[in-house]
């Protein structure tokens, strides 16, 4: 749709003057298919039409009734209209209510009652209909009729609380307290919701008949807590008794509440209220007992408010011990949450057990230990059991040292040893602790049996060592020999075992057995620390002053290794042998070592040998020997070598120190070349100095 242009309007006016040509002129002049500049939507058209319709709607005419006939005629028409509406749809209650209110406005109360009664016959469950009916009677001061309607309403629909509220309020406003109380009593027989009971209680409290109201309220509250057994209702009941100074009754209410809810449905709010009541009565010991009873039985996650109030109470009225108990309880709650979240968090169990051991009785500690050791690692790998095994160790030590229960300690050790998967791994410390415990109990056969079982099931170096040490302390040397034999059969490569076995025989004075043990040891194809074994054997022969055998051992060792420390040790042995030719022998060892080390690639070891030789010559040698050893000392030079990365690419250069020995004939040409290069470099420096300073003495320059 577009608005017509001005020229089109003029043409339209001219066309209207000539009616005969109007249709053709309009068709030719008004018809314009071009879009208008301002477009109008269909929504705007509809809204504009609706607005104009309201504007044009004429107001209804005012009718003035001047006589009775007109009034009766008006009433007849309106009643006919209402009746027609009702006849069309009887279930529309709003039509009945409008009809009754219209009759009420005309003061036709009897007709309005008739209409309401007819409407109730149609739908007696409509709450609004009863309310309008009763309100009409109350507005017109028809009290008995209103009572009759309320009685019928609460009898027909007893679960509609609004009827009861209106009925009791009406009676109270009329001053009929007894009637209102009677209505409340009838209402309470239906066991309504909590608010209804509170309304009844508040009604009784509004009147100052203390004896009657107090007893009635008390009875009402007693019934309330049975009909609606919530914690808040019990607390309100007890506070009511406390408010009216019935302290014994209030305490009984709290005790009944605790007994009513039992341990299955405990609530911290009840115990907090109970404790505060006792605190107001200055019964501090009862308060403490209530808090402890509740904390021991209520789940920790539901007792935050209880903890808080208990802490405040102890800070106000308790001593240091009481405050510490509160802190311990809080920490116990934290540890309980940690172990509940992750039962295999053994560090949390350790902290929890340490706390429990310091504060509670033995039964509680045992219970926590049993809970802790029940969390066996799910994987049979030793690394997962290393922390877990200490729970058993601490348990056994607690039973032995703190609880003084040796029988339970033995049971703990045995249970732990039965639990361990010995075919896969074991813990030697557990076997040894068990054996030591049995020894402390003077039960040696059981200790030996345990250690023997450990060696039979899962032999380990630590078990053999512990068993041997035990027999040594008992001076059972034959058993020690047998154990060493078993030990060396199990681990023949263990040099420490061979050495300890030989030392035992040495202490016992059996030198031949000790020497035979050493011979067996050095003949083993595999040894974990052969140098320690050879050194111990050599020291053994030196202690026995068997110098020839010692030299023979050194020669046998040098056949196996040409290590520089062996040569130096041999030289020092010859020096300390105490014989006349000791210096000569020592010098010969150094000479032989120097010849043997010429083919060694490790030049640092050869340098170490020469330095040891020079130290010897400085102390015991002559000038000739000192000069000779000085000539043998190498020259230390700095070199560069090329580095390569792991992928084969160049990684730059590095500097290192190398040693050039005068004795190496292969290195003599290199030494001569190096000396000539140094001489040439010096001559070049002198020539440059002469050019820079021409007045310098010629002889000095040439020099």
Automatic annotation (TrEMBL):
<dbReference type="InterPro" id="IPR055430">
    <property type="entry name" value="HAT_Syf1_CNRKL1_C"/>
</dbReference>
<comment type="similarity">
    <text>Belongs to the crooked-neck family.</text>
</comment>
<dbReference type="InterPro" id="IPR003107">
    <property type="entry name" value="HAT"/>
</dbReference>
<keyword id="KW-0747">Spliceosome</keyword>
<keyword id="KW-0508">mRNA splicing</keyword>
<keyword id="KW-0597">Phosphoprotein</keyword>
<dbReference type="GO" id="GO:0071014">
    <property type="term" value="C:post-mRNA release spliceosomal complex"/>
</dbReference>
<dbReference type="GO" id="GO:0000974">
    <property type="term" value="C:Prp19 complex"/>
</dbReference>
<dbReference type="GO" id="GO:0071007">
    <property type="term" value="C:U2-type catalytic step 2 spliceosome"/>
</dbReference>
<feature type="domain" description="Pre-mRNA-splicing factor Syf1/CRNKL1-like C-terminal HAT-repeats">
    <location>
        <begin position="94"/>
        <end position="378"/>
    </location>
</feature>
<keyword id="KW-0539">Nucleus</keyword>
<keyword id="KW-0677">Repeat</keyword>
<comment type="function">
    <text>Involved in pre-mRNA splicing process. As a component of the minor spliceosome, involved in the splicing of U12-type introns in pre-mRNAs.</text>
</comment>
<dbReference type="GO" id="GO:0016607">
    <property type="term" value="C:nuclear speck"/>
</dbReference>
<dbReference type="GO" id="GO:0000245">
    <property type="term" value="P:spliceosomal complex assembly"/>
</dbReference>
<feature type="domain" description="Pre-mRNA-splicing factor Syf1/CRNKL1-like C-terminal HAT-repeats">
    <location>
        <begin position="402"/>
        <end position="561"/>
    </location>
</feature>
<dbReference type="InterPro" id="IPR045075">
    <property type="entry name" value="Syf1-like"/>
</dbReference>
<dbReference type="Pfam" id="PF23231">
    <property type="entry name" value="HAT_Syf1_CNRKL1_C"/>
</dbReference>
<dbReference type="GO" id="GO:0071011">
    <property type="term" value="C:precatalytic spliceosome"/>
</dbReference>
<dbReference type="InterPro" id="IPR011990">
    <property type="entry name" value="TPR-like_helical_dom_sf"/>
</dbReference>
<keyword id="KW-0507">mRNA processing</keyword>
<protein>
    <recommendedName>
        <fullName>Crooked neck-like protein 1</fullName>
    </recommendedName>
</protein>
<feature type="region of interest" description="Disordered">
    <location>
        <begin position="684"/>
        <end position="703"/>
    </location>
</feature>
